[in-house]
Design a protein that fits this description.
Elements lengths: L1 H4 L3 H35 L33 E5 L6 E3 L2 H9 L7 E7 L15 E3 L4 E4 L13 E3 L2 H11 L2 E4 L5 H5 L13
Antiparallel strand pairs: 1-2, 1-3, 3-4, 5-6, 5-7
Length: about 200
């Protein structure tokens, strides 16, 4: 009887091995769940971690043109990249959108802001604070207003009603960021339909 109530050394080792295996499996499940959650966060950065828009300083220069932003009229843009304190500046919204679409440009984008012309009172140099996240904006394509480099512009607004009012006064059509044709921002100036915002 004593033998039945007291496990043999081999049985004790087997029991310990099973407990360790179960504990190890539980740790693996928890670690896998944590890794999956972390992967989801990387794929879609949370708004809480997105940087806020910077304000244009006197020395801010356009990423593509290398010229001072203050020398160009109209809405501007800024792109924030991971691991970089200052944003990349763009003298026009068109250049900002081109940066997003060109495959050779950096992809570690944490935020993209464009001037919110619904809040701006000064077309030439929109006031501080007049920014909208590009993915949230309504754009007017093909209007009679040119951008910073004197070319057709994708004019951004935080509100659809403001974009519609602008289009009623200046022509053009509304589009969300994903609806803007590539040739509108990447095509040669004077190439035709893309300047009018047509598909």
């Amino acid at each position: 009887m004593t033998r039945a109530s007291t496990p043999l050394p081999n049985e004790r080792l087997a029991t310990r091995a099973k407990r360790r295996a179960r504990a190890f499996a539980a740790v693996l499940v928890v670690a896998a769940a944590g890794a999956m959650l972390a992967g989801c966060e990387r794929g879609a950065p949370s708004a809480a971690r997105a940087p806020t828009p910077d304000e244009v300083l006197a020395e801010a220069t356009g990423y593509y043109c290398g010229m001072l932003l203050s020398d160009h009229e109209g809405p501007k843009g800024q792109v924030h990249l991971a691991g970089r304190d200052a944003p990349l500046w763009f003298s026009s919204v068109r250049d900002t959108l081109a940066f997003l679409r060109l495959p050779e440009e950096p992809r570690e984008i944490t935020a993209v802001y464009v001037n919110d012309m619904a809040r701006a009172k000064n077309w030439a140099q929109p006031e501080p604070g007049a920014w909208v996240e590009a993915h949230d904006a309504w754009f007017v394509l093909g209007s009679d207003r040119s951008g910073g480099m004197g070319v057709p512009e994708a004019i951004p607004f935080s509100r659809e009603d403001a974009a519609r009012d602008f289009a009623a006064q200046h022509g053009g059509r509304l589009a969300r960021l994903a609806e803007i044709p590539d040739d509108y921002v990447l095509g040669a100036v004077g190439a035709g339909a893309h300047e009018r915002g047509e598909r």
